[in-house]
Give the backbone structure.
Amino acid sequence: MDWIPQIFRRNKIYNDLSEEIRLHMEECTEQLMREGMSPKEAERQARVAFGNPTLLAERSREVWQWPTLESIWADLRFSLRQLRRSRGITIAAVFTLALAIGANAIVFGLMDGLILRPLNVPQSENLYGTNYGNNPTWQSYPNYLELRDRNHSFEDLAAFNMVLGVGLDTGKDPSNANGFATTGNYFDILRIRPMLGRFFHASDERGPNSAPYIVLTSAYWHAHFQGDPGVVGRQVRLDQHPYTIIGVAPPGFQGTISFLAPDFFMPIVNQEQLGVDSLNTRFTEHSIFESLGHLKQGVTPAQAVADVNAVSAYLEKTYPKQIAHKSTALTREGLTSFAPAALGFVSALMLLAALILLAACANLGSLFAAHTADRSREIALRLALGSNRSRILRQLFTEAVLISCAGGTLGLIASMVLLRRLSVWQPMPDVPIHLPVSPDAKLYLVALGLALVSALLFGIVPVRQVLRANPYEIVKAGASARLGRRITVRDVLLVVQIAICAILVTSSMVAVRGLVRSLHSNFGFDPHNTMAAGVNLVTAGYNLERAPAMQRRMIEALQTIHGVESVGLVNGYPPLVYTAGERENVFKEGTSDLRPANAALLPFHYQVSPGYFAAAGTGLLAGRDFSWQDDKNAPAVAVINREFARTIFGSVSNAVGRNFKLHDGTEARVVGVVEDGKYMSLTEDQQAAMFLPFLQSPSTSAYLMVRSDRDPQELAEAMRYKIHQLDASLPVETQTWTNLLEPVMFPSRMATLALGVMGALGAMLSITGIFGMAAYLVSKRLRELGIRMALGAKKQEVLQAALGRPLKLLAIGSASGLVLGLLATKVLAYIVYQATPRDPLVLASVVLAMLLLGLLATWIPAQRALSVNPLILLRED
Amino acid sequence: MPVLNKPMTESNARDLFPGALEMMILESLRRQPAHGYALVQHIQQRSNNLLQVEEGSLYPALQRLLKAKLVKAEWGVSSTNRRVRTYQITAAGLRNLEQQISSFERMFEGISLVLNPGKSTAS
């Protein structure tokens, strides 16, 4: 391979060649002179005979070159010079593309991390989980055991549960940690090996609380133990219970939910110790989160579903009092039941991002068309001098590719920065959310592909102009002649672009409105001005016997705080705390066979204290609140919501004083009816709910709700003080109720944020699009405008002449975009709660926004048109 | 004035097949090293003015041969006391020439057979 020295020797080769050619001509001339020609004639003849020496030299040189490569190189250099000359356009174009490609790269990164990338365990393609939440009474530990032993589809079945907010005391820095409680076979089923020490296995499980072992994730081990290998065998405390660290999981393994990053793993047989549901209760939804396993060879997911449903039917028949089972779905392990939502969300984002790229390409296409039109003389000259059209097109495409690559690189860098930040983002303090997004080669490829595709898209716009150009006409007509026709591709492109931007703006407005509405929708309680204090009496040594009395004393103590309007207590969690809602079957009065199939309703149920409704701001529609007399010795009573009353008793007024049966057969009398609300999620259909007096079904873990318009910080202080006065050892967690609702709000918030960003990008693109068009038109017509003004045209007329067209196009584009956008919001309604297009405010604000954008974008060109000085202009040229 | 003569009119002008010019250059150089002008003259004379080598083809061909290292070039002084760049055939060039000639002869034989099917060549 001697092409490298050749490159350096080339100059000598070329010089030799030129010299040789010169000497050849000389010799030829002399020969002709010897034959009797005059020197002048001889030189001319020699030249004629020789042909074009430059061409010859060029062709001879080509022998030493890679012709295509080098002409591309020449194109590149020429393009760079051209781009440098029109710096404004270049910067605008690169920036536009960087935005568009960056947005697409981020969305792709999200999709890759959440959906495309499999769980980081061997053979994950064959790993299926039973869908959580398809039936609230199904996911319990006893049911898991039955399913594990009776199914014929899974090689083996593991289960896990989440243990959130556990106090992990390593001896020096007690802190809250989040873990997975897993069955012993979990790691074996996942086929992974520990990085350090050992995992626990099925053989370690010997009944409740028999396996006090924990396995740390590699990340937690690095963060809290500085990667100390001596950590194996060390004692730690989980909520005061002693545990032994037996191993560290391999790096990159963070459990089986792809967007959560737990700190540790512990045996599920020990979870009861930490206050999680008992493993013996069959009728519960909290003792496991999900069961999972590899399908046996040759078993299809559909067969497995049928098998699981068969086991469920058997269980339903065997335990009619505890199990009602509808159907089970299997999902590829990783996203569990969030898969459809995540898929919908990401694909909607993908669609919007693609729209943005399209708008950007339309923008650049019209910019490029204008740019090419401005260079019509240069192109005509090149054509006239014998350059072929394909060479000119290649050069234009080279410019397009240069711009798009620069834009793509910039966009990629920005998206990498953002994705890195996303991957360490902790949106909620209590939930170990970890978005597994990390930029990799796939992302680079996608960005490159997008850059090339967009270069092709906007580079193709001026092609027709060049192909149709008639060099003779253009050179003759001078600088003002333009390639192309009167209604140009540019106009069409601008309309398309503005339409797309209007779609984006409309969708983001709809989304923002949806969020605002869901924040202010009727929850059935009023979270404002309410402070929540979580108190778990178990940690301070209270049992169920002593708890209610202590809770009553706390309520009374809190009522004495200055400025407090009302105080109430709810066992467990208040409504709308993510995944905390519990439901229970109820039966009509006459029902004697209390199997789930005969249940009249499956309402959410809460145990609350007298005063809770006042503290929560829940309106009482009929009857009365609970009183302190509704205790264990009094007859069972209940307050139900409107939906409950409507379904079972027909109406609110009918309900009070009537009876129904609780799941254990107790007859409860309805003493009050409260307004409907939201209990599990913002998007749920109206659900039935019932409230029971907490004195009749006590619990040690409860939230105290305190309504007061005092400063939250001060109030929280005062509440902790009052409670610690009663018992200094009680841990109290205070936060505003709004804060507590954060996780439920999170999806809508995210969707709105994402759509808002997309809308902002769309708005920016439409500004640059209209601005580019208006500025170009004004600059093209400056002379004409100058003449008009010199002849006495009014400002208004000048403006109309200059900007009439872009504004007309803006109006057409916005109108069509608005219509399309409103149609598109039907799709949006799936991901954004309460997104409805039939909203006059949205319509008005979209129209206003597009108008403002138009004004903003045409402002500078308009100023320029008005400041035309006819004298100076006419003197030019 | 043989240089300016165009032995073939435009209508019956025929392009040489690819490689023919290189082959003739190599053959000329095998007999005697020469510079570009001399090569043009030489080929024209040897072909009885039937072949006219254009400079526009000669120099690219020479560059190709140089690049393939079939010839080498040196600046020197000619017999007529001119500064010239003289080309010489290399060992590789000789080998290449032989291959070219033999393959050309076979091709020529084939073409002859097709054009004159009655006669059989005895060689």
Notes: Chain A is about 50% helix and 15% strand. Chain A touches chain B through 27 residues (CB under 8 Å). Residues 3-65 of chain A form one domain.
